[in-house]
Write a structure and sequence with these properties.
alpha/beta; 6-stranded mixed β-sheet; 4-stranded antiparallel β-sheet; 7 helices; globular; binds adenosine-5'-diphosphate; binds magnesium ion
Length: about 220
């Protein structure tokens, strides 16, 4: 039986620029099943990041409803959203978003620290996760001592370490060469397959969308 990980019902969102509304999403309806590996495509400015930010609880819709594991997130206050984001969601961004002054180990450990996990369990989990993404030998390095592909694998490890139910990835291969892009997609796929993690990946990179089970397309904020 398939269960919905994310449902988006009648969602609209506009930004206000100089007092005028700029529509970014218009009445979007989409159901993403648990374990799905979905590409969200569309031209620049079509609303991909806006939709991911809503699914990632980083922003709120103007209207409509979003549920995450059947929890209606529009009814939650910001503290409740933070808890849900910490416990259920992982993020992978184009620019990696690692903390530059922290080592690879500390970057991956950080979400577990925020969850209040005891140190021994944190260390064990981080070591296993770094091995899984092939970076155990790089644990003590700083992000600026890594290649782009390695940095993105740290970001994936940071999502993987806390067993995120849903991973939101915004243009994860935009700053990578083909070899590294392929590695990153393979790793995300393996994560989705082994852990049943749902992945929603905004991309206009066919190297990514060709490897997705499902491709949805936005044009001018409208799902095609
Ligand atoms: N913070 C913002 N303030 C004003 N307009 C924005 C903001 N973020 C996005 N937009 C506008 O919303 C629309 C959708 O943008 P976005 O979701 O970033 O698209 P994509 O990720 O597909 O490139 C675009 O017209 C963009 O200019
Ligand atoms: Mg974008």
């Amino acid at each position: 039986m398939r269960t919905a990980a994310v449902t988006i019902s009648g969602v609209s969102k506009a930004y206000v620029m100089g007092g005028n509304p700029v529509p970014a999403l218009r009445d979007v309806n989409l159901v993403i099943d648990a374990g799905d590996f979905v590409a969200l495509t569309g031209p620049s400015g079509s609303g991909k990041s806006t939709l991911l930010n809503l699914c990632g609880l980083l922003d709120r819709a103007d209207s409509g409803r979003i549920t995450l594991d059947n929890v209606d997130v529009s009814g939650l206050d910001s503290d409740q959203l933070t808890v849900l984001r910490r416990e259920r969601l992982g993020f992978v961004f184009q620019n990696f978003n690692l903390v530059p002054v922290m080592s690879v180990f500390e970057n991956v450990e950080f979400p577990l620290f925020l969850q209040g996990m005891p140190e021994a369990e944190r260390k064990d989990r981080v070591n296993r996760t770094l091995a899984r993404v092939g970076l155990e030998a790089f644990a003590k390095r700083r992000p600026d001592e890594l290649s782009g592909g390695q940095r993105q694998r740290v970001a994936i490890a940071r999502a993987l370490v806390k067993s995120a139910r849903v991973v939101i990835a915004d243009e994860p291969t935009a700053n990578l060469d083909s070899v590294n892009a392929a590695q990153v997609v393979d790793l995300m796929r393996a994560l989705a397959r082994d852990e049943g993690t749902t992945c929603i990946i905004a991309t206009h990179d066919p190297r990514v969308s060709d490897h997705c089970d499902r491709v949805v397309r936005l044009v001018d904020g409208v799902l095609q």
